[in-house]
Amino acid sequence: MISPQPVTDLMWAHWKTRTMLSAVEVGVFTELAGTPLTGPDLRDRLGLHPGPAADFFDALVALGLLVRADGRYANSPEAAEYLDANRPATYLGGSFMTQCPGMADDLTGVLRTGRAVNEAEDGRDFYRTMYAAAESVRAFQKDMTALSMGPARAIAVKFPWEKYRSLADIGCAEGALPGHVLAHHPHLTAIGFDLPPARAGFLEYTGRLGVADRIAFQEGDFFRDPLPSADVLVLGHVLHNWGRDEKLRLLRAAHEALPDGGAVLIYETLIDDERSSNAVGLILSLIMHSEVPGGFDYTGAECLAWLREAGFGQVCVEHLDGPESMVVGIK
């Protein structure tokens, strides 16, 4: 199976650049030129909002621009040499900003205010707006397929589907996950659960995969309607759209909907537990701060704790593809 990682690495490259440019713009490297600082001290000196600041600083660690020791941040040798504005002989920040005008504007604003760029009051408003027009729905669904292709193919191979007969993908978009799983496992049937405007794109995509006879679309809002009944419930790039309370609410709803022995399967761009190596996970969390009020990404350890709190017994984390991992809880 061919991994999409070389392509997705390039898709994430501009976000890594945007993160660096925002750090240059708000003065992270110049502020750290004197002495290492704790996250709260650095945040306060730069005038950043507490919400996205920790993900921002740890993303810079994962990108190799900062180092973190004993709870304090310092410049990496390269950042100290080339990104400190008080070293004009070697400073590269000015030229980067000139060559990429406007790239960091939205992210920098979110870092300073903590407010998402869009006008929605919460994530549900964001999705109602996104799903209001056919063109925006299809664009969003295709974006989700691009984000899910690698993990969907890996899950088709790595998860023990032979133990189960059915799955329901909660917030299914085009249905990339159930479509590719069913293509590999002829004994399975599936449900795609999403808001009504997602139906057309879902039927088109799963039809192209040749699994339309084993998959059905079910309209619903997972905060208002009961979740579908299936042996496995999948939450792919869903939990990170919401705050902690909403995350737990969805996990409890999954626990209630599953039969004994059933599984909830969560796949996300998990932040590594040390918050120092998976730059994409940390950057995606910054994107959530930008796009969806209350949303944030999380570590595998955090997700395991939430699963236990929601009532799941056996829980585990497994790497999938590139920056993606899955977390599984058994009822």
Automatic annotation (TrEMBL):
It holds the Pfam family Dimerisation. One of its GO terms (biological process) is methylation. InterPro entries: COMT-like, COMT_C, COMT_dimerisation, SAM-dependent_MTases_sf, WH-like_DNA-bd_sf, WH_DNA-bd_sf. GO terms for molecular function: methyltransferase activity. Keywords: Methyltransferase, S-adenosyl-L-methionine, Transferase. Residues 118-312 form the O-methyltransferase C-terminal domain. It comes from the Bacteria. Residues 9-83 form the O-methyltransferase dimerisation domain. The keyword Transmembrane does not apply. SUPFAM superfamilies: S-adenosyl-L-methionine-dependent methyltransferases (SSF53335), Winged helix' DNA-binding domain (SSF46785). This is Methyltransferase. It comes from Streptomyces amakusaensis.
